[in-house]
Specification:
- The protein has one domain: NAD(P)-binding Rossmann-like Domain (Rossmann fold), CATH 3.40.50.
- Helices cover 33% and strands 13% of the residues.
- The protein is built from 6 helices and 5 strands.
- A 5-stranded parallel beta sheet has the order 3-2-1-4-5, with helices on both faces.
Length: 164
Amino acid sequence: MRLPALNVDRGVFALPDALSFDEGTFAEPLACALRAQRLAGVRPGRSVLVLGAGIAGLLHVKLAAALGAGRILATDVLEARRAAAQRFGAEAVFDGRGDVPRLVREVNEGRGADVVLVCASVAASTSRRSAPSSAAARSWSSPCPTRASTCPCRSTSCGRTASR
């Protein structure tokens, strides 16, 4: 395998002996979740909506709880994933095909989510129907769901969407 020298020099870290390879596999996805939540402004007491309850979404649900987020909500189109999100700490879960903004307001004192984390590869999950309903909400997505020509950073792999 060939890797760029910069990646080897600054992006490869030896696992401590006490950490198994299985545990080490979560270093990168958890680091991505940490960075996304930091940039999106997850703070104690803020409501968080996670769109998509696959592996990345479940990491975000658990991490938001660990960071002291207020109400944590999640969506997915699959019932098994919605059930997993609830087991991982989501206070309420919704079918992602529904009227998500209305459902969020119903359980969040009439307000939209403060932070929306997009963890779904389905383009419909980033539609206006699923968009945050609070003008002050911030959204973070990985990977970028837009084309490079419309993404504010002009990259298809940065993981950034426009902040609200």
